[in-house]
Fold each of these.
Amino acid sequence: VERAVKYLSKGVTLEFSTEKCDGCGRCREVCPRGVFAREDGAARVIGRDLCIECGACSLNCAAGALTVMGSRF
Amino acid sequence: MRYKVEPGLYSLGSPGPTSPVLVSANYKLSFDVLRGDLAGIDAWIVVLDTRGINVWCAAAAGTFCAEELIERVRKTRIAEIVSHRTLIVPQLGAVGVEARTVEKHTGFSVKFGPVRSRDLPAYLSCGNEARPEMRAVRFGVLDRLTLAPMELGQSLMRFPAFAFVAFVLAGLTPGGVEFGKAWAGAWPLFALGFGSIFAGSFLVPLLLPWLPFRSFSLKGWLAGAAVNALLLHAAGLARGMHPFLIGACWIFFPAASAFMALAFTGATPITNRSGVSREVRLFMAVFIAVGILTLLYIALWKMKQWSVL
C-alpha cells in the first residue's frame, strides 16, 4: 500500500481558530486530504502537512474559523 | 470533438419525487463517467454550465459556484419535481460552492458527496454518508502513469534545441564546426539528455512516494543523478570524455531532471501553492548558478581541447 505523498508544508497558509469553531463538521466533509478531525465537538487540524490550500474549508466555514490563501482565482 | 453537454436537468433511469438530486459539471467525460457509475440507480442530475470544464478545475476557476447552482436550480424547477430538499454536490466542488449561500437562496440543503463518482452508489445506500476513504483525493501509481506520457511529451519537445546546441558544441573547433567530431562527441550527450528527461518526467511521477525529500526538485535531482551515474560511469559514456566535460554533465543533467520534476508540481493534486512558489523562487537561483557553472566547465573543456589552456 502506498503512503500519502506529503509536500512542503512550511509556509502553508492554513489558519484555524478553535475559539471560533462551532463544530459543524463541514471542513471534514469538504477536505480532500484528511486535514481535519473532530474532537470534543470542535474541529482539530491533524494533517497540516497534507494541506493543498484548495480553499474548500475556508469557503465553507460559516463560523469564519478557517482561513487559507486558496488557489481559487 | 465536442466536450460539452447541455446544462440543465437530466434523468437517470426512472426517477421520481423522492429520487436523489446530484449536481455535476458539463464536461462530457465527467458526465459520462457519472452516468456509467450510477447505472441501475434512479436519480436526477442538475448539470451546471462550467464551459466544458471538470468539477474541480471549474470550482477553482469560479464557474462551478453557488451563483450558477442557484440559477440552475431555479431554471430547472427541480423544487417542483422532487419532494425532498437535498442537493448532492461533488466534494471537490466545495472549492467553488459555498454551501450556505445555496441553502439560503434555494431552500435545499447541500450535502457534499464523495470525491469519486464510483463511490456514489455506496454513498447513497448509506443514507448520504461518505466513509473517510471516499473523501480523500488519491494520487496512485495509475494516476501518475497516466500523467507521465504527457510530461515526457512536453520535455521531449525541448530535446531538439538541446541536441542542436550539444552537436555544435561537440564539433566546435577554432576553424568552425567539424561534423565527424560533432557526431562522435554529441551522441553520448544525446543519451545523457534522454536520460535526464526519462528521470525527470517519467521516473519522478512513477516513483514519487518512494523518492526521498518532499521537494519535487530534490526528488528530480536525485533521480537525474542516479540515471546520470548509470549512463556516465556504469555504461561507460564517460570513457573518452575530458574531466571538464564530465563535470559539466554532472552539473547540468541532474539539474535538468530537477527542473522537469519541478514542472510536475503543477500536474499533481497533492502540492500547495505556497510550497510551489517557495520551491520555484529558491530553485530559480540554483538553476541560474547551474547554467553559469555549466558554461564555465564547457569553456574550460573547449580551451583544453584547443590547447589554449
Amino acid sequence: VQGSVSASLREALVGEMTNLRAFAVSLCGDRERADDLVQETLFKAWNHLDSFREGTNLKAWLFTILRNTYFSDRRKRRREIEDADGSYAANLSTHPEQHGHMDMQDFRAALKRLPDDQREALILVGAAGFSYEEAAEISCCAVGTIKSRVNRARNRLSEMLGLEEGRLVANNLIKSA
Amino acid sequence: MAVEQSKKKGRRRRAALPGEDMNQSNFCEAEPFVVPESEAGMSPNLQAHIGRHLRAAFDEVAREPIPDRLLQLLKDLDRSGGK
C-alpha cells in the first residue's frame, strides 16, 4: 500500500534505529554486517507495516525481525562465519586474569565467543532493556530458557574473562582508594 | 537492568513476522526448561560488573549517529512506499 505509513509510525521507526543498530552490532560483532542487518530489517518492516498493530511494542517487533534475519542468514553462512570467528577469537590479545580487570576490547571479544543464543539473551535482557518475558517472545522460546541462557552467558563470560569475586572486590577497593 | 520477577502470563501466539512461516517452527524451540543448579545466578557483584560492560558496549553504538546509507534507505522507502 503506497504512502500509507503514518507519520507517527515512521517517526517511531526512526526513533528505534539507534537501538536496533546497537543490538545488531552486539549480536554479530561487526559494524558493516550490522548495518546490512538493520537495512534488511528496515526494508522488511516497512513492507510489512500493515501486519504491525500500532500501539503494540514496535521495538520488540523490530528486534524480532532483526534477530530472525540474523539467525537465518547465519545458518546459510555458517561455515564462513565460523572461520571468521576463529580468527577473531585468536585476537583475544591480553589475558585479563593477569590484570584483574577487563577492558572493553576483551569484553567484546568474549561476548562474541558466546554461543549465539546465549549472547542474544544476555543482550536483550542485560542491555536492550527487555524483560525476560519480552526476550522470550522475541527469541520465541520459554521464559525459563531465556533465564537459563542469561545465567550461562554470565558464567561463561566471567570464566573467559577470569573474573572472580574476591579479585573484583579488591580491584574496586584499589580504584576507590 | 530491571530484574523483573515476572508477572505470570501465558504464552501468547504472536503475529507472523515478515519472511516467517508460522507453521514452520524454524525459530522456535521446545519448552519448557528447568534451570539446573550449575546454571544458577552468580554473585550480584559480578553480575553488576558484567552488566555495566554490556550496557557500555551497547550504548556506545546506540549513541552513534545513524549512518547515511540507512537514512538514505529511509528516504527511499518513504518515496517509493517500499517494495
Amino acid sequence: MYLDSDRRPTLTPKLALRIAILGGIALVAFSVVFFRLWYLQVLSGDRYKKEAENNQQREIKVEAPRGEIVDRDGRVLVDNRTGLAVKVTPDKLPRDPLKRRDVYRRLGRLVHLRPKRIERAVAKQLKALPFSAATVKQDVSDPVVAYILERQEQFPGVTVERVFLRQYPHHTIGAHLFGTVGEVTKEQLDDQRYRGVNLGDRVGQSGIEYQYDRFLRGIDGASKVQVDALGRLKRELTVKQPKQGRQLRLSIDLDLQKAGQQALAGGTGRGAFVVMNVHTGEVVALGSQPSFDPNIFSKVIRASDYRRLQDPANGAPLSNRATQGLYPTGSTFKLITATAGLQTGVFTPDTVLFDGGSLTVGGVTFKNAGGGGHGALALRQALTVSSDVFFYQLGRDMNGTLRLQHWANLLGLGRRTGIDLPGELPGLIPTPRWRNRLFKKHQTDRPWSVGDNINLSVGQGDLQANPLQLAVAYATIANGGNVLAPRIGLRIEDSSGRAVQELDAPPARHLNIRPEFRQAILEGLRGAASASGGTSAKVFAGFPIPVAGKTGTAEKGAGRPDQSWYVALAPYPSPKYVVAVTDEAGGFGADTAAPMARTILAKLFGVRGDKARKGGPSD
Amino acid sequence: MQNTLGTTVKDFREPQPRGVLWFDPLLLLAALGLIAFGVVVIGSATADDIPGDKLYYVYRQVAYGVVGVALMMVLSRFDYSRAREWKAGVYVAMIGAILLTFALGFSARGSKRAIDLGFINLQPSELGKLLLIVALSGFVVDRVRRLGEAETTSRIMLLALIPAMLVVAQPDLGSGMVYLAVAVAILFVAGTKWTHFAALGVLAVGAILLVLVAAPKAGVHVLKDYQVDRLTAFMHPTDNPRKQGYQINQSLTAIGSGGKSGRGDKATQTKLNFLPEHHTDFIFSVVGEEFGFVGAALVLSLYALMIWRALRILTMSKNLFGALLAGGVTAMLMFQVFVNVGMTIGIMPITGVPLPLMSYGGSSVLVTFMALGLLQAIYAQARQTARAKGL
C-alpha cells in the first residue's frame, strides 16, 4: 500500500529543474577536474616527471683516495689505508629526543666521546649537509664496529662506512713535511683554491698536503641510486668511479732523511737540519727534532695529544724548527758579514786585520770566543780559525750604514725562503730602526749602538734565523750568486710513477757577487774543515769527501746552553750540496752540530763505516 | 494487484517478459569497469607492499567485489519502498553501529573506525552512508507536505548531524561530510525552499569559521591538529613539503609525472612508496601516474556515466521515496568522487574519503555496490510501473 503523497507519477518541472541543477553541478565539477588534470599531466607533465625522478634518486659520494707521496726514488712516504668511520644518518635516528639522546649516550660510551659532543657535531654537520650522514668518529677499531653492527637495534641510525685515511709507514721520519688532511672549512670553500671541493670533503690543511692539495686531491666518484620513500636503497643506477689523486714525488731522500733525523736525535733532543742541492734548490732532507708520528692525525686526535704536541715543555714537536726556528746563528753568519764587507768595499779578500783577542768599542770589550788572539790575518784565515775580532771590526766599520743588514737580507735572511712548505717564518735581521722603535715603546732597555752591529757580524744578539735560511745563503755563495727558493715537490705523477707534470723550480734571485770574493770565502770555509787550526778540521779529519764548512756557537743568554751550528758545503771545490745543522743546546759548533753534519754527509755521499769524531772546542 | 487509485501494478517479482532488461546495463557496466580497473591498479600499486604476497590486496578486493556484486543483485530485486517503514529502525541501527565502534573498534593510525568481524573489518561509518540515505529519505517522505517549514529542514539536518558528529569524533572527517552532503541532497531533491539552503549555507560557513578559527583561539580543539593541517595544506602545499604538504605534493608529482599516457611500470612515485595510501585514498594518483591523462580520463568517464545513469534513475523513480533514495545515492557518489579526486589533484583538502569502487577496502566497496543495487531496484520498479501504465 502506498500513501497518496508517495505517488509521483510524472516528473514535475520543479524536480526537473533540481535534477538539472544536480547534473549541472556534476558537469562543472567534471570540467574542473578535467582541466586540472590537463594542466597537471599534459601541460606540466615534464616538470613533474623530473620531480618524480629527483624524488627517487640519490647521489652517494664515493670518496676518492688521495694521491700517494713518494720520495725521490719512488719509495712510499705517505699512502692510504681504509678505516672504518662511525656515521649517523639523521632521518633514521629515533624522532623522540630522549631516545635519540640514549643512542648518543650508548655511542659515546663506545667511541669515548661525550654524548653532548656527538650531538653538537651531528647537528653542525647536518646543518651544512642536510641529507647525508654525519661523521661521529673517523677511525674505529674492529671490535667497536662489530659491537655496533651486532646490536643495530640499540643503535638506530648509526652506520659504519669505509673511509680512506692517511698512513705514514715511516712514522716520525719526515713528519714535519707532510702536514695533515682534514675536513674543508667554511672559509676554504669560498676560496678559488678549493674549487670543486664539497662540504665534508677532506683536503690538505698543512704541509705538503696543503701545498700540493690540488694534485693530491682525488676526484670523488658518485653512485646514483634509486631509493624508496623511506630512503632504502633499491638499486644502483649509474656509477662514476672515484679517481685517486696524483702521486707526488718529493726531492726528499728517505735514507738521508732517516739518517739526518737519527743524527739529530743523538744530540740534545732539540734541533733541525736541512740538506739542499745548491744548484737546484731541491731539498734532499729536512728534519726537526723532536719529531712525532703523524699517524695519530688520521684518527680523530685527542685534545690531550694535541696539547702535548704543541707544548713547549715537550719541545713542541709539531713545530718545524728547520723553517720556523728563530735562532741566532753564531759564527755561521760570518759568511754573510764577509760577503757584505767585500761587496760594499769595506775590505778586500787580502785586507789584513789584527786580532788581539778582543776589541773595545765605546768602552765595551768584545772578546774572541776562544779567549786568545789569532794575530794578523786576512779573510781566508779569519774564516778558517773563526776569528771574532776580525769580524767585529767589519761589523764596527759597517755600523752607521745598513750594508750588513742589506746583504743579510739579499742572501735570504729576514725573509721567507719561498720553500713549498707553508708556515715558514721570516725571522729577523736587527736594524737600528727596529731597535730604536722598540726602545721608544719601552720594550727594550737601550737604543741601537755600534755593539749591536758588532754582535750581528758574528751572528749573535737579536738575529733570528733558521737552518733553511742559512742553507740558502751558503748555497748562494756556492752556486755563483743564485738565491734559490728551496723546494720539496719534484713532480706530479700518475699512480704508476709516470710523470704528469714537472714542478718547475721557482725562479732564483741572482746576486752579482764577484767570483774572487766567493772563491776567498769558500777557501776560508774549506780551511776551517781541513787546515790545521780550522774550527772543524778535527771533525772532518779522514773524511774522504772534501768539505768546506763553518761552525757556529750561538749564545742564548745567561744560564742557557749555547746553540750549536754547522753549515757544510760539499764536495769542495765545486759543492753540490749544502748541509745546515743546529742543535739548540749542543754547545760548541764543532762539538755537536759538526759531527751531525759529518754523519749526514757520509750518508749523502755513501761513505761507509764512517764514524764522526768530535772536534776541539774552538770557534 | 490494484492500488487505492485503481491502477494495476504488476508485481515486479513476476517472471519478466523476454527481451527486456530489468536493470540499467550502463550503470552496471560503469560499476564493473570501475571495480575491475581498480583491482588492476591496486595490483600494480601494492605488488611490493607485502613481501612474498604480491596479490594480497588483489585477492581481497576481488572477493569484496564478488560479494558486492552479489549484494547489488539481491538488492536490485528488493522492494525498496518497504524500507520506508523501517526508517526509525534503520536510523537507530546506524547510530548503534557507529557507537559500537567506540566500544569494540580497533585503532588504526590513531583512529577507531572499524570493527573486526573476522572476514572483514567493517566500518560502520561507511555502512552509515547508505543507512542514513534510507532513513532520511523515509523521514522526508513523511513530512513532504511540510517541506516549506523550517522545522522540517532543521529536523532532517539534525538527524544527519548526529551521526556526522559521531564519526568525526572517531575521527573520520570524510564520512561526516558525506552524511551532511547526502542530507542536503535529499532535501534538495525533495524540494526544500531555496531560502532554507541559503540559511544552511550561512550556518555552514559560520561553523567552519568557528571550528577552524574561533574555537582554537578559545582553546577548544574540535578537530585534531593533523586534521586542520590537512584541511588547510592544499591551499599552500609548498609551505612545508616534508610534513603537511607531503601527501599533496607527492600526489601532484605522481599524477603530473604520468603525463599523457602514463609511466606504466616505471611509476616510481607509487612503486617506491613516495605516494602514501596509494591503494586506498590516493588510488587516483596511481591511476594518474601509471596510466596518465588517458587512464584518468577513462576513470572519470566511467564515473560520469555512473552519475548520469543515477540522475536518470532519479527522474524515472515511480515514487518520491525512490527519487529521494536515488538523489541521496547520487549525492553520495558525486561527493566522494569529487572530494577524493579533488584532493589528489590539489583542489580539495585531504579528508580521507575513499574513491568509490576503486579504493581498496571492503566496507566502501560493499556499501557502494549496495547503493548501486538500490538504484537498480528503483530503475527496475520504475520500468515495471511504466510498463504497467502502458507507457
